[in-house]
């Protein structure tokens, strides 16, 4: 759990430190803007913008029942963030597994990526796809066969 929040907390602390220095230097408006930027970056790198994560076993079970893809991800991953943002509301249709919270999920990702925890790894109909194009993932959702 701590590892998930490490990057966002470091961003907020760094932003607060820099904003304090800038504010005491006579630029309170610049300090506030800088702090806002760091807080926004912390929010984007936190798990808060991702749909609720499931365990790998539960995600695979649900995927087998409804045909929806499983996405293995981790906080702080820019490629995971890109996928999440570009999917928009469609992201809620996928089954998300945070590999930092679920050892089975991390093991599943390592098994299909030569021992590496490369994310996002999207599993569609039992076939893994590492860092797929978000447009392709959207096609899988809209094709009807996976939803």
TrEMBL record:
Report if keyword Protein biosynthesis is assigned: no
Region spans: Disordered: 128-147
| Region forming the signal peptide | none
Q: Which organism is it from?
A: Streptomyces kunmingensis
Q: Keywords of this protein's UniProt record, alphabetized?
A: Membrane, Transmembrane, Transmembrane helix
SUPFAM superfamilies named in the record: Thioredoxin-like (SSF52833)
Segments forming domain Glutaredoxin: 70-127
Stored InterPro entries: Glutaredoxin, Grx-like_ET, Thioredoxin-like_sf
- Is Thylakoid given among the entry's keywords? no
Its ancestry begins with: Bacteria, Bacillati, Actinomycetota, Actinomycetes, Kitasatosporales
This protein is called what? Glutaredoxin domain-containing protein
One matching Pfam family is: Glutaredoxin
Q: Which residues cross the membrane?
A: 29-50
